[in-house]
Design goal:
363 residues; alpha+beta; DNA polymerase, domain 1; Dna Ligase, domain 1; 5-stranded mixed β-sheet; 4-stranded antiparallel β-sheet; 13 helices; 37% helix; globular; binds magnesium ion
């Protein structure tokens, strides 16, 4: 018989806002939104005090202020969040190497065979929460289950500072009662389609004709039926963090004129920026590499105060490196751009006309 896996999902509570309240006493106990304060700003994370007024992630700040006139809007301080995140991930790794980060403040852990402590997911989750608090002064919520799906739903059930354990014998009943929207992979459109089939809970998934289900939602149906039966064997995939993302172009002819270089650089930064955005990563450092006609290679780097997370930002910094630092004259034969110091980013400020969607933080 296979042993039942023990999966913990840990999610920091109102992470950015909690870091701000920890570091700034005047924000404690008050409704706080971390995000853009300008007319087009967006709330990235709201403190629990602000959530009581209906303030939510990805909401325009203007709207949030209308809901909560005393809302304190503070700009994000990514270095502080990054530092707290590192401390949290160190705690995770002290319990298991099987850590799959989902965001700065969230991860799956497989603690079936923990590095320390008894092989009890409940005790591990409790210890992890306590150590996170000791290391960062922040609270986390945890969910325990036999798979990722159940663990993740469980961690959201008793926030903040919650610990919800779904024991193996309770999994099927737990999943049966879940509304379909809670299932992994089910967005609003899929939910609508499922409801059209009369499926609104986990229990309904086991009643509906599997073929009808497959025709309606495709491959996802396999996961849904398994999950509804309490089976979710998706492995916890440890962090195989990429060190950098880069691209370069060798020109058909050596280039010297600024306009031509700008065009080549734009193509390279577009490639790099898109990959960065698609991977849901942000970068600390942007590096430019040029090769001269005589094959000499020069690289220059910059680490901006704010991490780089969009095509436009990559291109701004790469251009700054190419055109504002003094460089020896002479035609170029290659230009390359890479970004490094990568970390996952789940929270993005939505700006119109940018090709990504915001992923609001779950509460
Ligand atoms: Mg969180």
């Amino acid at each position: 018989m296979r042993t039942v896996r023990k999966i913990v999902h840990v999610d920091m509570d109102a992470f950015y806002a909690a870091v701000e309240q920890r570091d700034e006493p005047r924000l404690r106990g008050r409704p706080v939104a971390v995000g853009g304060g300008s007319e087009r700003g967006v709330v990235m994370t709201a403190s629990y005090e602000a959530r009581r007024f209906g303030v939510r992630s990805a909401m325009p700040t203007v709207h949030a202020r209308r809901l909560c006139p005393e809302l304190l809007v503070v700009p994000p301080r990514f270095p502080a969040y990054h530092e707290a995140s590192q401390a949290v991930h160190e705690v995770f790794r002290s319990f298991t190497d099987l850590v799959e980060p989902l965001a700065l403040d969230e991860a799956f852990l497989d603690v079936t065979e923990p590095k320390r402590g008894p092989p009890s997911a409940t005790l591990a989750a409790r210890a992890i929460k306590a150590e996170i608090r000791r290391a960062t002064g922040l609270t986390a919520s945890a969910g325990v289950g036999n798979g990722k799906f159940v663990a993740k739903v469980a961690s959201g059930m008793d926030k903040p500072d919650g610990l919800t354990v779904i024991t193996p014998e309770r999994v099927v009943a737990f999943v049966a009662a879940l509304p379909i929207e809670k299932f992994f992979g089910v967005g609003p459109r899929t939910a609508e389609r499922l409801r059209g089939l009369g499926v609104s809970t986990g229990a309904d998934l086991l009643r509906v004709d599997p073929e009808t289900l497959r025709r309606s939602v495709g491959k996802l149906s396999e996961f849904l039926v398994d999950a509804a039966g309490g089976i979710d064997e998706r492995p916890v995939v440890p962090d195989r963090r990429r060190k950098s993302i880069g691209a370069e172009r060798t020109f058909a002819r050596d280039l010297e004129e600024r306009a031509a270089l700008e065009a080549e650089l734009a193509a390279v930064t577009e490639t790099v920026g898109r990959r960065l955005v698609r991977a849901r990563l942000a970068a600390r450092t942007v590096t430019l590499k040029v090769r001269y006609r005589d094959f000499r290679v020069v690289t220059r780097s910059t680490t901006p105060a704010t991490p780089v997370g969009s095509v436009r930002e990559v291109s701004l910094w790469a251009e700054a490196l190419l055109f504002t630092t003094p460089r020896p004259p002479g035609a170029l034969r290659l230009v390359g751009v890479s970004v490094s110091g990568l970390f996952p980013i789940a929270h993005r400020v939505v700006q119109p006309a940018l090709p990504f969607e915001a992923t609001p933080e779950s509460c």
